[in-house]
Structures are given as structure tokens and as C-alpha cells.
Amino acid sequence: MTQTTNTMFDPTQFILGTFASNCSSGMSVTKVPERWVNSWDNNLKLAKLLDDAGLEFMLPIARWIGYGGETNFHGGVLETITWATGLLTQTKNLNVFATIHTAANHPVVVAKQIATIDQISRGRVGLNIVAGWNQPEYEALGLDLPTAHEDRYGYAEEWFGIVKALWSRTEAFDWETAHFHLKQALADPRPAGRIPILNAAGSDQGREFAIGNADFLFTPAIDLKRSTEEIAALKTQAAAAGRSIGVLTFAHVVCRPTEQEARDYLQYYAQDNADWAAVDNLVRLQFAHAQSFPHDLLALIRDRFAAGHGGFPLIGTPEQVADGLIAMQAAGFNGTTLSFVDYAAEFPYFRDTVLPILEAKGIRRPAATNATM
Q1: Which sign does the torsion angle of CA 114, 115, 121, 124 carry?
Q2: Are 278 and 71 in contact (CB under 8 A)?
Q3: What is the CATH number of the domain that holds 236?
Q4: 3-state secondary structure of 198
Q5: Is 150 a member of any domain?
Q6: Which of 74, 186, 236, 319 has its CA 20 to 30 A from that of 252?
């Protein structure tokens, strides 16, 4: 089998992807009629646009219940293993992640699923590991959410230890830990190459898990000065552990020919027509059970949740959006995801106006170069 060179691991690129296109309304908690419809046809159209433009990846959110409000934000979600497999069969260079909750998916099953998709995609599948935080979602699955944050990551550590063993060992083995009791486990097939591993982490326990296990730590960019200090500390911590780690974030794009047009559209969808009931449910749950966002910035975060699920705002002209991305790289981020109110409708303008600026600044190569790697 011929493996595709995985562009996620190219240190010379500021890597770009999209986030949450498998979810209803994407990342924008809005009631506007043009909000994203997460149909298979729309996701496939977007994947082909991204592949042709040379973007590196698509990252989904795994969700089992919505957040209520008028739109029931994220009430409709395409399951990520099947979503990723389908998209990978229809693209050539794009990496597609599957997002997996450790509590809801057995590691022996996941190890075989990812190894199978690795063959199907010729080395373009990634794994995003979620230790869990959303209590109503746990209840919908008939599970108990551990109250201690370290317990969730302790479970995830055991879970991923099994996955790594299955991907590396060639003889059957037993596995005895607090949560798992395996007898004569063995995986065949195993991945042919390196699987990109991503983990979103805000707490100390989460960051220790990511530094020990992941290739990419996914974290919000609330303030780039604050991010610069955090990223430097994270990379120092990783180096002390004998590892290197890329740091990714997520951003929301409103790119228009003039800044006023972009600001007007932001006001229209993220203020005048925000689904505030869903926003408040989402923020309440995040701050009750997760540690992804700094609690001292709640007021700012509430508005950003309406606009793009708390993502860093890239609002303005193509030049202003490009400047924002360049500033993110300067802060130490290795890349970011992007979201739009309507991904497939808005991405072509970003592709045609922003990507050439990034290429001219030397933080990305033209798409044709990526395709030949």
C-alpha cells in the first residue's frame, strides 16, 4: 500500500483545517437562515474544496445531544468515524480526524477502526481523544461523569495506553489496570505509519496527558499575549519530558471586501440573531464541567461563543484576516482550525484572497506544492 506523506507533520507550514462541519450550525450559535447545514453533501463539497486548496485537515466534534435553544445547537451531528471514512475515500491529500470519547468507545474497537481507516485513506486519518466533560451527554449515554478532573484523564491514560500497545505489539498480551482487564489482546491490522493524535486540554491534568501522548495540543486563543506565554511554557514542559508537541487553536472567520461589511455581518448573525438560550446553555456547561476556557474572561467568551463557539475572531478584510493568522503563528501556534457561518459558501473567498497573502508571507506553500509532497 502506498502511504500519502502526512502534511500534518510538516514543520514549515502553519497548518490549517476546519472544525465542526459535521455539526448542525457548525461553530456559530445563530438563528440566521444561511447557517451551516451539516448534511453529508455539504460536508463532501467542503472536503473537496479544502483538498483542492491544499488545507491540511478537517476536525469534527463528537456530540450526542444538543444544547437547546431555538436551534437546538449541535442537536444534529454526523458520527465521526463514519464521517471521516467517507470523506477520506473522496479526497487525495486531506487529513480527516475522528473524534472519540474515551468513556463511550472501547479502546480495542477504536484501535481496529483507526487502523482500518488508515488503510482506506493511505495514511490520512487522525485521532482526536476526548476525556469527557459534558454531564448531560454522559447521562444520555447512561454513564456517570467522574467529578474529579484527574479521574477522567486517568481513565484516558489507561485507554490510550491500550490503543498504543495494540498498534505496536505483535504478540497477544494481557492488560490489567484499574478500569481495563484484557486477556490475550492483539490487533491486526495495525497502522502502517504514524497516526496524528490530538487532544484538547486546558487543565493541568489535561495538558500533562496531551504532552505525554498527543502530537497536537488543542487550546483556545483568547488573548495572543496570554497565548504566547502559555505556548512557551507548554513547549518547555514537553521538552523536559523528552517530547515535542504542536499547539493548535480554533478561529472563526468573517472575511469581506471591507471591514465594515464584516463587522455588520458579525452584528447580524452573532448579536441580533444569536441563539442566546443555546449560548448560555453551552457556556454554563463548559464552565461547570470543563476547564478549557479561562474563567476570568466569561463576558468576552459569551460573545465569542455566539460568533464561533469561543474561537479566536478573524473579522475584516482579507488583509486583516491574514494579519490575524500571522499573529497567531508569531504567538507560537503551529496552526488553527477555521469556521464560517456557511463553510462551503464562504471558504472560496478566503481561499482566493487570504491564502495568497499567507503564501507571500512564507507561512504557507501554494496548494500545488502540498499535493506533491
Answers
A1: positive
A2: yes
A3: 3.20.20.30
A4: strand
A5: yes
A6: 236
Is residue 1 one of the residues assigned to a domain? no
Domain count, the chain: 1
Give residue 337's domain range. 7-371
Beta 246-255 vs 335-339: how paired, if at all? parallel
Q: What ranges in 4-145 are assigned the alpha helix state H?
A: 40-53, 80-89, 107-121, 135-140
**DSSP characters over 328-372:** HHHTT-SEEEEE-SSHHHHHHHHHHHTHHHHHHTTSS--HHHHHT
Whole-angstrom Cα distance, residue 366 to residue 9?
17
**What span, in angstroms and rounded, lies between the C-alpha atoms of 322 and 244?**
27
Spatial separation of the C-alpha atoms in residues 250 and 336, rounded to whole Å: 5
Write down the residue that cell numbers 487532544 correspond to: 199
Percent of all residues in the chain with a pLDDT value above 70, rounded to a whole number: 92
Residue 293 lies in a domain: yes
**C-alpha dihedral sign at 114, 119, 120, 126:** positive
Tell if the pTM clears 0.85, that is, is over it. Answer: yes
